[in-house]
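Molecular record:
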Amino acid sequence: MMTAKVPPFHSLSILQVQGKEFHEQEIPVVNEISLTLTVNGEEWLSFMCTPLHQIEMAIGFLYNEGIIANLDNVVDYRLCETGDNVDVWLTYSPQKPRAWTRTSGCSGGSTLKKHASQTFITIHRTYSADIIYHLIDLLYHQQSLYKTTGGIHTSALCNADQIIVSVEDIGRHNTLDKLAGMMLLRHLQIDNKIILTTGRVSSEMMQKAIRLGCEIVISRTSPSALAAQLAQEAGVTLIGYAKRNQFNVYTHSERLTP
């Protein structure tokens, strides 16, 4: 029997305890699925993710990992009817990596192990602190699923004026793969790209942001020391603990003005 696609959340009966009072109620809880990526008919790996934008995540993962350079490398792609497998067919036959490095992501993602960046993002413009505050405020308004269920990350790809696309997923690494896939599949041309994220910026997150060509990465929480090192080497301005009225700048503060 065919299994229906899993919705992004479902209702769960819980017991809520307040002080000494017990209350039974129904609450929305975010769903999590195992999504398999198949390349040229060969199963490569599985992700734990929120069942939204699965095709974008598969294409974006292949791009962020350097397996594809652009959509010209992709012949076809398809999400199976049950929503838990994406088939991607390429113009060539890449060698399946023998081993994936387990990431520090909330859902245990995978990545090719690489740290050194050959990219240096030069400074084309500067940004006022007010622009950063404005973007953080916009990010708060993009968290539609989070406002319903909690327990989920949001990331957005934007420029200095507006958010272009945003995504939500239980895994913070997944959000950057989904953004990469959206950028490719929607043929988005964005100058002076900025990443906004609610998640911690680890080295894997920074590598994905560098691959996307983002000159600023802004997180509501902290970066790791290795992420800061990679940002410094790649010319990326890394901002953490960003709120509507304050933030910390870890690298390349010369992009910012009062």
User: Anything to note?
Assistant: The chain has six helices and 16 strands.
